Amino acid sequence: MKRLNYGDKVGILACSNGLDKNMEVKINKLKKILNEIGLKVVFSNKIFKKYSIFNGSGKERAIELMKFFQDKSIKAIFDISGGDLSNGILEYLDFDIIKKNPKLFFGYSDLSVVINALYAKSGVETYLYQIRNLIGDNSKIQIKDFIETFMENKKSLFKFEYEWIQGKFMNGIVVGGNIRCFLKLAGTEYIPNFKDKILLLESLSGDVAKMTTYLTQYKQLGVFKDIKGIILGSFTEMENKKYSPSIIELVQEIVNNPNIPIVKTSEIGHDSDSKCIVIGKNIELK
């Protein structure tokens, strides 16, 4: 079944940090590309910074998101923000309404908070993907893959190359995202149940000390006792600067369980050629 059809209306908003006004040219370029694909774009009123880093209060940003979920003419919602602020909207969301009005919801980085909360509280599948990839350095391939995946019922954006670090098979529902941002849900009602899940982790910034701290917190939360596998995406700073120990070595040391399957991919993360992975959906790797 195609997820989007020619003529569908899609919403664009920013649930995390507000965007600089100088981003308006790029956002208009994104609108143009989506229009050319055949999608009609509706913008939130809370995208660009109004003061400091804020494009509105947490409640105001949540209201914008709820408007899109309640608008039956909107078939997909693309969050184009990132940063630190998205957890500020969670207490103002009506997850019952969201459950009754499921939409395609896309976001990455700090939106790891929202996409996992939507799955945990409403049971809806969400998409770890940044729609701004359509105007990035790999735009031609990204546009092609997006059209094939969401408008032609193919799987181009969902197929990613990976290598086995340990194990040979994993099967389960995917949760996770940005290693730092996902931890904001720790101790809250919005964090998914980790039992028998596949944990996806990726990161833009962060050195050995930070990665060690984050991984240790996951361990102390009991996550590594519950999950059935780990997908490691790209860890941009760690890999570009060739830090030692590597992210793979840190994960193996801290998880300390050879029976947990682990794969590594460079195709899910913050890079402009990143693929898409569905949070709340079963994946099988072998």
From TrEMBL:
Pfam family of this protein, just one?
Answer: Peptidase_S66C
Active-site residues, record numbering mapped to chain: S109, E202, H270
Which keywords describe this protein according to UniProt? Carboxypeptidase, Hydrolase, Protease, Serine protease
What's the source species' lineage?
Answer: Bacteria, Bacillati, Bacillota, Clostridia, Eubacteriales
One example GO MF annotation: serine-type peptidase activity
Q: Domain LD-carboxypeptidase N-terminal spans what residues?
A: 10-127
> Species name for this entry?
Clostridium taeniosporum
- Where would I find the LD-carboxypeptidase C-terminal domain in this sequence? 172-285
Keyword Protease on entry: yes
- A biological process term (GO) from this entry: proteolysis
Q: Does the keyword Nucleus apply?
A: no
**Similarity comment text for this entry:** Belongs to the peptidase S66 family.
User: Mind telling me which SUPFAM superfamilies this protein's record contains?
Assistant: Class I glutamine amidotransferase-like, LD-carboxypeptidase A C-terminal domain-like
Q: What is this protein called?
A: LD-carboxypeptidase
Record's superkingdom?
Bacteria
PANTHER family attached here?
MURAMOYLTETRAPEPTIDE CARBOXYPEPTIDASE, MUREIN TETRAPEPTIDE CARBOXYPEPTIDASE
